[in-house]
Design goal:
Rossmann fold, 5-stranded parallel beta sheet
């Protein structure tokens, strides 16, 4: 009996601290920081938070979390100036937040400079994380950064090929490029252009007010189509870019489906909304105790082609049967 009694006492003595720890974990309100390199007025006018964050919170809810009760969100929008973005990252670290979701390569760089301990979940569609030094490997990042990266050189080649299917005689393409971002996508586009026998001309635009000048440059370079390289600013102002492409009579292709839905000729790339939902999966695992350095980096595996028939008609283009057959969505 004494042995049984001692066993019970020992079991209780070991179990109670674990139950107390679980109770403390359940009571804790975790703080999640978002770092996005867009100025607050731009973010507000583009309703960025309204379009993206609900997808994150919806996924968190599905995973058993409740906003305001078990987690809160702190958002920092900043101009893409390196120092201002780094200051915004430092502000999140000082709060402190428990995890940072960094959107775009400048945000990941700023967050990594601000902390080596707080987990950083990247939504970075420009950078090779290993080459950049963000991670030791894709399978085991080892540092405090993991998440979703897209640095597929063949993606731009596919988008250029789609433009050539629309315009078989196409020989020169303007690439709308945000010079504040990692140059990897631009280099990939330049390499891809050679493989499809297209002359690529860069039209730089870092802000909304730069768009008109960039399109003017594309016209002076006698570009016959427009390739929009990924950028948070370009995503935010997809309709402005699509409208300008129509004004200048340029068949255009973007990365995300919102570009085609906003009036661009086509889009081919991952579903950005799904990426925000996927980032919640990482946050969930980290808040439940997973080590960020052991969570493999993921790349989008599904890409969708969206075609805008109305825009094609305005441009006087016939949509090839191969494009229609391969489209995931056709906008009439």
């Amino acid at each position: 009996m004494r042995r049984i009694g001692l066993a019970i006492v020992l079991t209780i003595s070991f179990t109670l601290p674990l139950l107390e720890a679980d109770a403390q974990l359940a009571r804790k309100v975790w703080r999640i920081g978002f770092l996005i390199p867009i100025s607050l007025p731009d973010a507000a006018s583009g309703m960025l938070s309204m379009r993206r964050f609900p997808l994150f919170t919806q996924r968190m809810t599905e995973l058993g979390w409740t906003e305001g009760q078990t987690f809160t969100m702190e958002s920092r929008f900043s101009e893409r100036d390196e120092q201002k973005l780094r200051s915004a990252a430092v502000d999140l670290v000082r709060l402190p937040v428990d995890v940072i979701v960094a959107v775009s390569s400048p945000a990941v760089s700023a967050a990594s400079a601000a902390t080596v301990t707080i987990p950083i979940i990247a939504i970075d569609l420009e950078t090779d994380p290993v080459a950049k030094g963000f991670a030791a490997s894709l399978a085991r990042p080892s540092k405090n950064i993991t998440g979703l990266f897209l640095d597929l050189p063949e993606l731009n080649g596919k988008r250029l090929q789609i433009l050539k299917e629309f315009v078989p005689t196409l020989s020169r393409v303007a690439v709308l490029w945000d010079p504040s971002l990692d140059p990897t996508p631009l280099k990939a586009a330049e390499l891809a252009a050679r493989t499809v026998s297209v002359d690529l001309r860069v039209a730089s635009a870092g802000r909304r007010e730069d768009f008109a000048q960039a399109f003017g440059e594309a016209t002076r370079q006698h570009a016959g189509a427009l390739l929009v390289v990924q950028s948070p600013a370009f995503d935010l102002y997809a309709k402005d870019i699509a409208d300008l492409a129509l004004k200048y009579r340029l068949p255009s292709i973007g990365l995300f489906n919102e570009f085609a839905k906003s009036g661009g000729l086509a889009s081919y790339g991952p579903d950005l909304r799904a990426l925000f939902a996927q980032s919640a999966n990482y946050v969930d695992r980290i808040l439940k105790g997973a080590q960020v350095g052991s969570l493999p980096i993921e790349r989008p595996v599904r890409f969708e082609l969206v075609v805008n028939v109305k825009t094609a008609n305005v441009l006087g283009l016939t949509i090839p049967q191969s494009i229609l057959a391969g489209a995931d969505e056709i906008i009439q």
